């Protein structure tokens, strides 16, 4: 009985480095799956994000500009779950974390646009 108690901690000590090595080598992934940009774009439209933020993430009177902004994933997820202002909250039951991460990846991929990239504004400017 005494030998069994003495051997158990040693066998556990031997397992810990093996488990850490497995994780380090990628045998056990603790990360989230790779986000899907195309799915994120579809979800951005389906969930009505474009209505306030614009199709290109340019923002509007009712929604913040998202394109080209520095957004951190955890802050983005937290804000969508518990927003300030008039933005509706999207709880996980309505929008699962995996889908929200796809939307985040899509929003991060949107390029920043400047006023000189808007053809109509350039036409107005050149007409003067």
CATH class of the largest domain: Mainly Alpha
Question: SSE string, helix = H, strand = E?
Answer: HHHHHH
Helices and strands: which structural class? mainly alpha
Low-confidence stretches: none
Q: How many separate domains?
A: 2
What is the 3D shape? elongated
The overall pLDDT, averaged over residues, is 82
Rg over C-alpha atoms, rounded to the nearest angstrom = 24 Å
Main sheet properties: none
Instruction: Give the number of DSSP strands.
Output: 0
Task: Considering the chains and any ligands shown, give keywords for the structure.
128 residues; mainly alpha; Cytochrome Bc1 Complex, Chain D, domain 2; elongated
Short note summarizing the structure:
Helix content is 54%, strand content 0%. The chain is built from six helices and no strands.
What can you tell me about this protein's structure?
The protein is an all-alpha fold. It has helices spanning about 1-25, 35-45, 50-55, 75-80, 95-110, 120-125. The model has no long low-confidence stretch (mean pLDDT about 80).
Give the SSE map.
Elements: H1 2-24, H2 37-46, H3 49-53, H4 73-81, H5 97-109, H6 119-127
Helix pairs in contact: 2-5
């Amino acid at each position: 009985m005494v030998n069994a108690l003495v051997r158990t901690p040693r066998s556990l000590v031997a397992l810990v480095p093996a488990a850490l090595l497995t994780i380090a080598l990628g045998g056990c992934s603790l990360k989230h799956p790779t986000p899907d940009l195309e799915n994120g774009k579809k979800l951005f439209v389906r969930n009505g994000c474009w209505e306030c933020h614009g199709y290109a993430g340019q923002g509007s009177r009712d929604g913040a500009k998202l394109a080209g902004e520095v957004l951190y994933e955890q802050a983005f997820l937290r804000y969508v779950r518990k927003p300030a202002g008039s933005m509706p909250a999207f709880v996980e039951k309505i929008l699962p974390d995996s889908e929200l991460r796809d939307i985040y990846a899509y929003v991060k991929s949107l390029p920043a646009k400047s006023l000189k990239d808007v053809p109509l504004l350039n036409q107005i400017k050149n007409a003067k």
